[in-house]
Amino acid sequence: MSLRRSLSQGLLGLMLMLLGLFVLVSLAVLLWAQFESLDAIEGRLEAAAPWLTVMRINVIVAVVVTWPRLVTWWVVDPARRAALLRARWRLAGWLVILEITLGQGLVGAFIASLMAPGA
User: Fold this and answer.
1) Using an 8 Å Cβ cutoff, are 87 and 68 in contact?
2) pTM higher than 0.70, yes or no?
3) CA 74 to CA 13: how far, in whole Å?
4) Cα separation of 103 and 59, whole Å?
5) How many other CB atoms are there within 10 angstroms of residue 104's CB atom?
6) In the predicted model, what is the mean pLDDT of residues 10-34?
7) Which tens digits make up the pLDDT trace of 65-90?
8) Within 10 Å of residue 93's Cβ, how many Cβ atoms?
9) Which of 27, 57, 70, 115 suits 83 as a labelling partner, its CA being 20 to 30 A distant?
10) Which of 98, 63, 68 is nearest to 81 (CA)?
11) In 1-119, at which residue ranges do the beta strands (DSSP E only) sit?
């Protein structure tokens, strides 16, 4: 019972933290949209694109580097802990694939090429 309770409390805390972060970012975007036009926001985001890419890559590296410690903190069951520790590089691979396809705009470029006249 205590294992289930500790695991659910850890996941609940993580979900609440992510929900709070989402709400905070949403409020910041709404506030930003009140003070600047959409064209200005788009220009600023395009100018910040290289820095945002560096930030995303740093987050991926931080997750991969701290993965053993995170798993040790969050997972109590030794079998699940071992399975998650073995999945570290699989997770890293999927994060890199997501960054390449979504973060670098490959999906958008592919869809744009399909929608282009003469395609």
Assistant:
1) no
2) no
3) 11
4) 13
5) 13
6) 84
7) 999 988 888 888 888 889 889 989 99
8) 11
9) 57
10) 68
11) none
